[in-house]
Amino acid sequence: MRTTSKLPFLLFLSPMLLSVTMLFLGCASTQSATQSSAATQNVRQPDGNPETFWNKFSWSELSPEEQELWGKLGWKKESWDEKASPPSTEDMDWSELSSEERKAAEQLGYSRFYWDSN
Question: Where exactly are the structural domains of the chain?
Answer without folding.
Answer: 62-117
